[in-house]
Amino acid sequence: MLTDAELDPTPITAKTVAIIGFGNQGRAQALNLHDSGIAVTVGLRPGSARAEDASAHGLRVASPADAAEGADLVFLLAPDEHLPGIYRAIEGSLRPGAALGFAHGLTIHYGLIEPRADLDVIMVAPKGPGAALRRLYTEGKGMVALAAVAQDATGAAWPLALAYAAALGSGRAGAGVLRSTFEQETVSDLFNESAVVWGAVPAILEAGFETLVAAGIDPRLAYLECVTELKLLADLVAERGIAGMREAISNTAEFGAASGGHRVVDEAVKARMAAMLGELRSDAFARALQQEAASDYPALREARRGARASALEAARLSLKGEPDR
Ligand SMILES: NC(=O)c1ccc[n+]([C@@H]2O[C@H](COP(=O)([O-])OP(=O)(O)OC[C@H]3O[C@@H](n4cnc5c(N)ncnc54)[C@H](OP(=O)(O)O)[C@@H]3O)[C@@H](O)[C@H]2O)c1
Question: What is the whole-number distance in angstroms between the Cα of residue 210 and the centre of ligand 1?
Answer without folding.
Answer: 34
